[in-house]
Amino acid sequence: MLSLDGAPFLTLLAILTLALVAVVVWLWPRLGRNAVKPVAGRVGLFMVAQLSALALFAALVNAHFEFYASWSDLFGTLHPQNTITMAQAPSAASVGGNVSGVTGSGAKSSVLTVDGKGGAALLGGSDPQKYGQIQYDRIQGLRSGLVQNVEVYLPPQYFQPQYKDARFPVALVPSGFPGSADEMSTRLRFPARLLEGLNDGTDRPVILIMLTPMIVSGRDTECTDVPGGPQALTFWVQDIPTAVEGVYRIQSSPKAWGVVGDSTGGYCAVKIPMMYSDHFSAGASISGYFGALQDSTTGTLYGNSQDVRNENDLMWRIQHLPPPPVSLFLTASKQGDENYAPTMQFVGLAKSPMAVTTDISDIGGHNFNTWYNAVPDALKWLTQILSPAK
Hints:
Elements: H1 7-27, H2 36-65, H3 71-74, E1 82-87, E2 111-118, H4 120-123, H5 128-131, E3 133-140, E4 147-154, E5 170-174, H6 181-186, H7 190-200, E6 207-211, H8 232-245, E7 257-262, H9 264-275, E8 282-286, H10 306-311, H11 314-320, E9 327-335, H12 340-349, E10 355-363, H13 368-385
Parallel strand pairs: 5-6, 5-7, 7-8, 8-9, 9-10
Antiparallel strand pairs: 1-10, 2-3, 3-4, 4-6
Helix pairs in contact: 1-2, 7-13
């Protein structure tokens, strides 16, 4: 079968479209009468030609943006075969070192407001001791001045009597752009997938904080402190931890903080630990990339400074700066996603004390079906890397 995004299929579809246009031009005069059959013939020819043109346009868009890499991917029947490989893996105790966490004495400066609680329809039930609970929060960051709505998933253990004094590890869960916190809970189903892993015994309890990189309405900040603009990275790295530590029972050690996200969120999931290993010890990137491009959605990210651009370029950092003591989990597809070659390049450059685990699929795409399939492995890895609830 022809590949969905391959040149032979696109060429065949283009030839078919041109042929149908030629047929319409040739037959149209023969169907010029106003009787029922000629009118039906004209309508049929017009619809077939239009559908063919639309199919060609959709195929070209798909080939450019890599939404679907195969027919099985398009129709939801793809079951990718993954190969998980670990390299330069230090012991869990060594990741993050003994550096203190984000907050210090008197650092409670950000405000968190709980606006609602629920999630029963997503989790399968309303008993928090059995299903956990999703809370809908608003965080006002006093360091960055930014405000964002987030969704916080508290696992069942958070409500169980035997854990009443326990403090839990935390994972930020950024979406792609434009994305939303709700997308992570409803479409990729991070809370429900974590609950499944907890029930199966493959995952350990962790608090999920789901959010979008679009902290400023309509702008893709790429989790960057923009010179003269939104201080998005400060919001993520400082404001969120100080806000949630004032409300929830969480650990402040970097060994208890990680990030997991897809696409733009995957870039942030690697960038945040690499830049702030004294705050975060692990990141799981699902189809992420290693350097943010500036376009109409981002605006000027780096203030025309090459130094600021380099600081936010993960490939530059791994080549020019000492490797941070963090663990990373990177997913990629050999066919269907442009991140495979950069991922392999990044892995080849990684050195101890950085540890990199890869989850490579034979085929996939830059789309929700591929990301959805990667979520369980990413959560299993991250919850086992972070320090347990204690």
